[in-house]
């Protein structure tokens, strides 16, 4: 039998081990970097070298913003409380200057290159590379008559594309504001999500096109918006101009280029569009204005205000030139209208999308509403969205309205 002091020592050692955690280098680190580290309880430990700094703070965009503690060796450290699973952007503030962590891979987010740390989700691997056939991601360049410039896009081609003669349906998948066309591959893992869905038979093989969501019409001079707040008339005018330019670029330049250079099925029944946040707003505008081109529509935390422009009230009878005025006719024409949101997203965004869902329900407009549990306005929400959305595309028949919950 162990003595009481021995039992107390054992208990103390277990508490110490728990406090220390089982930290391991994050998968998002640069080569051989030992920090940031993540433990099994989803805590993140940051370690940043700044021996001459007087004050260092860590700034998680959807997490803690806190002072770091200086160590004797000149490194500053901080350990977060448990974070939601997914990719978390962060920067470090060194004596007032915001910098990226050189130990972390840099991602384009918030209109700048920033650090991020991947917090794994226990028991979940749908967005991880597996021993299944893999598609390819290619970068393409096309000249846009709308912008008068060369523009690029990333194209996911499903497994066996090069060895088959098949034609494929196409999903146009847009990034959010402050991010770019690399986001869905680098942050979202869209290629691995589709590889795994296709391998399991859950989704049809498809081409995915991820374009640049920022467009300025040739000859348009952007006015100086210095001092103009977001939402001001001047700001909104520029936003609407750019939305229109993007819409024209997709429909008049990008789609024709893709259909010409890849083996696509070119009718509307085999063309979908979806996007996250700003990309969701763009998706709603492009697809509802061009239902001759699209029959599958997805908004991942998509800005609902595109439905309400003008009078700040959504009316299914009049919105988008009455496209939803006849719910039965709309259901035959649009095979899927899909709307998703994270349960922990900012209240204004969450309330707007829930209101949109409720209005569609009351008007009997067929759609799917999905809630990602415990996630914010972040990539884990949008990975889950794609995992739910993609299997619903290009299936025989249309899908009934439903509300979905889950990872």
Gist of the model:
The protein is of the alpha/beta class and about 400 residues long. The protein contains nine helices and 20 strands. It has helices at about 5-20, 185, 190-200, 235-260, 280-290, 320, 325-335, 345-360, 380-390; strands at about 25, 35-40, 45-50, 55-60, 65, 70, 75-80, 85-95, 95-100, 105-110, 110-120, 135-145, 150-155, 170-175, 205-210, 270-275, 295-300, 335-340, 370, 400-405.
Low-confidence stretches: 4-18, 397-401
* CATH-defined architecture of the largest domain: 3-Layer(aba) Sandwich
- Widest sheet, order of strands: 12-13-15-14-16-17-18-19-20
CATH superfamily of the largest domain: Alpha/Beta hydrolase fold, catalytic domain
Describe the structure.
The structure is a single chain. The protein has 407 residues and is an alpha/beta fold. The protein folds into 2 domains: 98 residues, Immunoglobulin-like; 270 residues, Alpha/Beta hydrolase fold, catalytic domain (Rossmann fold, 3-Layer(aba) Sandwich), CATH 3.40.50.1820. The protein is built from 9 helices and 20 strands. The protein has a 9-stranded mixed beta sheet with strand order 12-13-15-14-16-17-18-19-20, with helices on both faces. Strands 4, 5, 8, 9, 10 and 11 form a 6-stranded antiparallel beta sheet that branches. The longest helix has 29 residues.
Name the descriptors:
407 residues; alpha/beta; Immunoglobulin-like; Rossmann fold; nine-stranded mixed β-sheet; 9 helices; 20 strands
Which helices and strands, and how do they pair?
Elements: H1 4-20, E1 24-25, E2 37-38, E3 44-49, E4 56-60, E5 65-67, E6 69-70, E7 75-79, E8 86-94, E9 97-99, E10 106-109, E11 112-119, E12 136-144, E13 149-157, E14 170-174, H2 183-186, H3 190-199, E15 207-211, H4 233-261, E16 271-276, H5 278-289, E17 296-300, H6 319-322, H7 327-333, E18 336-342, H8 347-362, E19 368-372, H9 379-389, E20 402-405
Parallel strand pairs: 14-15, 14-16, 16-17, 17-18, 18-19, 19-20
Antiparallel strand pairs: 1-2, 2-3, 3-7, 4-5, 4-8, 6-7, 8-9, 8-11, 10-11, 12-13, 13-15
